[in-house]
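Incident log, structure service

09:12 report received: a user says their structure output differs between two submissions of the same chain.
09:20 pulled the input from the user's history:
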Amino acid sequence: MLVAVVVVASMTACAPGSSEGNTARAAPTAEHQRRQAADYVEETMRRSGVDWDADQSEEYAQDCVLADGSAGALYNIVRTGAGVDDPEAVTKSVGAAWAADGLTVKYSTDEMTSGAKRYLVNGGGGGAVERIQFGAATTKSTMSGVSKCGTGNAADLG
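09:34 re-ran on a clean worker, output below:
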């Protein structure tokens, strides 16, 4: 009789409508995704050693589409900082840390309007962000991160 009770209890746990057997999870909120991305951007800022300018910080919400096709919101996080003596080394250090965190990284260079050569690393494919970019030059450093899409409405998030 004990065996029958255990079998019945197991079967009810997996029955439709049972919360124990239901593996579907609600998508995280856009605010939760923003916090995760902002924390990762802040961690990267500390790791980089760049002197970041708080007055040059910006965050804004944007519409996105969740995996189930419903509307959601994501955040763009932008930071600006001082230039560095060895931008290539700083960029490679940031990229190595991201790769160690499981992100796929890609390096490139471009020229800033000032004529300075800027070293860039783009990361994505895992972790707390949808994508992230770090750029360093002798004149200025930049960072931008995009959170993963979460539930919410960008217009309501400001």
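09:41 both user submissions now match this output. Likely a transient worker issue. Closing.
09:42 reviewer note: Confidence is low (pLDDT under 50) at residues 1-23. The beta strands are 52-65, 71-82, 104-111, 117-126, 129-136, 140-146.
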